[in-house]
């Protein structure tokens, strides 16, 4: 059944219901009125008729005849009862059965004229009672009861008939409407089906236009619309097909490019799923034969690759790089860029990331080889030099102290030879030292040029650097009886730089100045020069010829004739300085006039304004310690009650021999181990008071040995000094209490050893340790404290400082950032030592 | 609307039927026959009465006819059924009057039918239409203006009920209730009771009616209840035997055991037959305490010559009935008060006819009848007519049931309160 029909049917039902009932009610009402009227008329006529006919009879008191008369009217339809009262009011004739109703018996007809009443008789029903007087009431009164029930019955019958008629008409209407609506709805259904097919782009659908009515019109319109749509869609489809073909071509082109890229390409979407990749990538990660598309990159890859992808998706406009591990042990360099969709007026939406991976295994290998070469060369050069130089010094010392005084005056020739030997030994030592310096410089510059140097870029303070440099070279200057003038404002802003390297620059420049100046001044200046700090070292030496002013910054070039004049250095100092300064984004040059001295300038750009004052102090505790050691050198005291035992660990026999000789000479008892296991055994057995540790050893390296030592309760507290040719950074990582670089400086080594064995400073200098969250930190460095180690909270520390505390304050590095190190350092009475974790 | 049923007159149809039915019978009866028109309810509640009345008259006329008739002319009764309904009765009457061969109207039966036919007689007075011996005790045909057109033989209901009331009052049964048919017959009995009671300074204790045409199967409990409320000493019934039998049954069932009296019109034998049947069904003797008034002597009184003659002629007649008019299944009584009355009607009619020079002349008939100033018909009392006397007999006879038959009631002391 169509919806239209249902709706119409409902409307018909409602309409018919209203009409039928209204009509029936109306009819009933009219009928009721008509019937009532008719009955009243009829009753009136009957009553009058009886009244007229009964006059004579009544006067005769013949009830029987009256009865016969009234009986006659009982036959008339609608007449329910008739009764007659005589002049006394008695009922003399009636038609009631089984008896006269109480209401009639009780009644007394007294009114004049014809009356019409509605009466209700118990046990009988409702009646219209018409009464008429007989002989003007003198003879009595006749009453005719017209049955209302009949009216009701007739009304009911009428309504029923009418409703039946309505029902019939209704059924007929429904049928007619059904046919009509079918005639409307069928074409409509066809039309909607047609429209549906059009919607599904089925333009082959046709519809027959049969009628000229609205539906036909609609069908016609739809048909022409379908035609236009068809044309439009066909055109569109063609255009789309062309575009698609072009797109596919482009795609294929792009695909070919991507597929043939030597680098691996990986595209991931925002949820981390792989949306594109090329065969090179599969090959790199050994994933050939796997379809990665749609997979989660976290499952397909691991490690830094995943991390890179995650980071790339969360950053914007930044190219991230990482080294990733490739299949077969290779190394790849990955470049990741986030893909952002820039919608106008909106924030860019991250759509994923593109990662390009290049296989750099070969480069890495070359790089590795180079590094290894340099390490090897430096190691191989320095190790014999350590021995040669060390023994030369020991020989010279022994020769000078033990042999030369004992020669006696009787052997002048021997004395002369001995003096010659002593001089020669001096030459050996100085030339050995120059060779060491040269080796260091060569290695340095080689490393710099190959980019092997790791720059520890931090905020650096020029005044501090200058001060440090000056203090290092103070003895040199004094030896040549020169005067040093420094003109450095204390409030210079910090620069970003590698502090050690900058000190190296300053040391080079100062030592050059000292070297070439015989008398006069050495002036050190520092100025703020625009966005840079300009530092200059001026001397009053011979000056440099203008043609040499550029030359001197080249390797192995010195001013003057090197053939005729004795070289005064390695010739690598200034090139190294240039390397360092240029690496810092600065410039180095010289201003000089012959005979009037020279000024070596260099500039360093200022730190970007992200000034973190604490950062500069947050160097490792060890470095701080080393610095303090330097400054306290002179105060080192010896408490040699019992000979302390030192274990020397080094795989090189000459170094072992040299160090043993050095320590024995200095009054220590020396043990030696050639490798890690032996060292561990000796350490456990003899419990030495100190251990010197080489790092690069066959089998177990030094770092591992230190780790083992720390793990053993017996050896945990033994201080360890690393002596290695490896860079400071690696040395520091070994976990030792101090590090020294090869070839080792004897004096520094001995000072360090004494510090570790006997503590820093005098017994009068107490120690204080800052507590970390109430816990007491432990460190072998506390050996530095001759007396009691006191633990204190931050507030207590400050309180004690205000009370005039003098001594060493240990700050665990985990809270060093939170502590005002600058304020601590500013106190001249104390040392600050930052404890490594 | 089509529901208004127009008052379509049934008259044309009734006339047509009558016209179709009558001619054959007329032609069959012979031209020289003395034809008497009889309209009675051969069907319906009065079928027993009509049949017995007819049989009684027929028995005597047959005997007269068997002896050569009156002046050589046989006497023939032309019966017509009116269903005890006034309208067909009027139809029949018009037919009879307009048929000049019909000498007179005879043996009409029923008060409502007769009282409604009376005005016709008056309006057809120039046609000299007279009604003889209607089987009803109603008052109208005994009073002006209709007494001029009617000769009655029997005593009136008023006389019957007066005799009853007087007798009941004599045995101190003063609270008398009336059960009557709601029509002219019942009304005339009711009127009689009222008048008779008034003579004693009493009034009707209670009254109940029933619709004419009621059958025995109908319940009369409502009527019994109405009457019992008044605690009557006796009940006088003015009705037809089916309704009266039903009333007696229901009254007895309800415990109303006072004497119940019926008038002659009830048809005593028919009532008794019904009561016996009902009593048998209910295992109850419904025949006790009954008083029936009669307007003819008991046919059991063999001392009367008329009774002997009646019995002889009835036996000769056998079980003949006007079958064509009646529903099948009616079993006639051998003897009955009604057929005895019919017999006497016929005897008086024959006596009048014999005094006429031309027994087919309507004009002579009234004078002949009026001349019967003292006619002995063998029932002890003479029949007396005259110009101012239109009722031949005044005697009322009481009967009661004994051994399954109505016998003369000589002594009322048995009904004393």
Describe the protein in words.
- The complex is a heterodimer of chains A (837) and B (417).
- Chain A has 837 residues and is of the alpha/beta class.
- Helices cover 49% and strands 19% of the residues of chain A.
- A five-stranded antiparallel beta sheet of chain A has the order 2-1-5-4-3.
- The longest helix of chain A has 57 residues, at 3-59.
- Chain B is built from twelve helices and 14 strands.
- Chain B has a seven-stranded mixed beta sheet, sandwiched between helices. A five-stranded parallel beta sheet of chain B has the order 2-1-3-4-5, sandwiched between helices.
- Chain B is globular and about 60 Å long.
- Mean pLDDT of chain B is 87; it is low at 1-10 and 16-31.
- Classes of the chains: A alpha/beta (837), B alpha/beta (417).
- Chains A and B meet through helix 2 and helix 4 of A and helix 4, helix 6, strand 7 and helix 7 of B.
Query: Helical stretch count of chain B?
Result: 12
Query: How many strand segments of chain B?
Result: 14
Q: What is the SS-derived class of chain B?
A: alpha/beta
Largest interface: A-B, 27 and 34 residues
Gap between N and C termini of chain B: 63 Å
Query: Roughly what percent helix of chain B?
Result: 40-55%
Strand-pairing-aware structural class of chain A: alpha/beta
Query: What percent of residues of chain A are in strands?
Result: 15-25%
User: What ranges of chain B have pLDDT less than 50 throughout 5 or more consecutive residues?
Assistant: 1-10, 16-31
Largest sheet of chain A: 5 strands, antiparallel
Lateral arrangement of strands in the main beta sheet of chain B: 7-6-8-9-10-13-14
Taken as a percent bin, the fraction of beta residues of chain B is 5-15%
Query: Kindly state the mean pLDDT of chain A as a whole number?
Result: 79
Outline:
The complex is a heterodimer of chains A (837) and B (417). Chain A is an alpha/beta fold and 837 residues long. Chain A is 49% helix and 19% strand.
